[in-house]
Design goal:
Length: 264
C-alpha cells in the first residue's frame, strides 16, 4: 500500500519518528511533539486505519502484520524526503513495529526509544484474547474496547485522580474504527518473538516504562535493557502503561536527555 498516513511533521533538526500504540493515534504524543520540535524534526503519523489515516486497504479478517506497519513508516520517510537516520520512538504496539523496522530498515535508524513495550511474543492465552476481540469488535463497537482497556492502561492514581485524562483516553479509543482494531489485534497475535534480536542491537536504545505499567512491567523492560548492548532503562514515577501521557514531563525529559547524548 502507498503510505497515505495522516502525519504531523513539525520542527527542524535531527529527525525523530514517534509511533503510537494500540488502539490510539498520534495525539498520544502531543506533549512530546511540542517539546521535541524545538530542537528536532518530529514526525508523528497515524498508523494505517488509526486516527485520521485511511482504512480502505485493511482486511479485519487477515490483519496487518507489524512488518507491514514498519514498511508504511519507511515509505512515509521516503515521501517526506527524510534521508538522515531517525531516532525511532515506539510506544507499546509502536515498539513491536519498531523491532520490525530495525530488521527491515536498519540503515534508516540512528537510535531507538522503546516505551512501555515488550520483545516477547504473546502467550497462547493472550493470543486467544486478541482473536476474540478481532472476531467480535465490529459487533461490540470501539466504546466497549475502551471500557475493557482503559483500566489496564492507566496507573491507579491516574484512574482515581485524573477524570479528564481517563475520559480523553476512552474517547480516543472509542473513535477508532473497529476494522483497524481487529486488523491490529490479528497482527499483534501473529508477531514473532523479538527477544533474540536484543543482543544484536547495534545502536543506542533507551527503554522507558511507567512504574505501574501492568502490560509491560518494569522487570520485563529491565530484562530487555540488560540484554541490549547499549541499552538503558528509565522508570517513570506516577505512571502506568500510558507513561507519555500520564507523566509527560518525566518522559519528555528522559527522551531529551537521550537525544542530547546522541549528538555529543
Ligand atoms: C498498546 O498499548 O499498544 C497495547 O497495549 C499493545 C498490546 O495490546 O499488546
Amino acid at each position: 500500500m502507498n503510505a497515505q498516513l495522516h502525519t504531523i511533521d513539525q520542527g527542524e533538526g535531527p529527525p525523530v519518528l514517534l509511533v503510537h500504540g494500540f488502539p490510539m493515534d498520534h495525539t498520544m504524543w502531543r506533549f512530546q511533539i511540542e517539546s521535541l520540535a524545538a530542537s528536532h524534526r518530529v514526525i508523528a503519523p497515524d498508523l494505517r486505519g488509526f486516527g485520521q489515516s485511511p482504512i480502505e486497504s485493511i482486511s479485519s479478517k487477515i490483519g496487518v502484520a507489524m512488518a507491514d506497519y514498519a514498511d508504511d513508516l519507511a515509505r512515509l520517510l521516503d515521501k517526506l524526503a527524510v534521508e538522515e537516520p531517525v531516532t525511532l520512538v515506539g510506544f507499546s504496539m509502536g515498539g513491536y513495529i519498531s523491532w520490525q523496522f530495525y530488521k527491515r530498515h536498519r540503515q534508516r535508524l540512528r537510535a531507538m526509544i522503546q516505551c512501555d513495550t515488550k520483545a516477547a511474543a504473546d502467550t497462547p492465552q493472550a493470543r486467544e484474547t486478541r482473536f476474540k476481540m478481532a472476531e467480535h469488535v465490529e459487533g461490540w463497537g470501539a466504546a466497549h474496547v475502551a471500557t475493557l482497556m482503559v483500566p489496564k492502561l492507566l496507573a491507579p492514581s491516574t484512574l482515581q485522580g485524573n477524570t479528564k485524562l481517563v475520559e480523553e483516553i476512552g474517547g480516543m479509543i472509542s473513535r477508532t474504527d473497529p476494522v483497524a482494531i481487529a486488523a491490529a489485534q490479528r497482527g499483534m497475535a501473529h508477531r514473532e518473538d523479538s527477544t533474540p534480536l536484543l543482543e544484536s542491537l547495534d545502536l543506542p536504545v533507551l527503554y522507558v516504562v511507567g512504574q505501574d505499567d501492568q502490560i509491560s512491567t518494569t522487570s520485563e523492560m529491565q530484562t530487555m535493557a540488560d540484554a541490549t548492548p547499549d541499552g538503558r532503562l528509565v522508570t517513570i514515577p506516577n505512571a502506568g502503561h500510558l507513561s507519555p501521557i500520564e507523566n509527560p514531563t518525566a518522559v519528555t525529559a528522559a527522551m531529551e536527555e537521550f537525544l542530547a547524548s546522541l549528538s555529543s
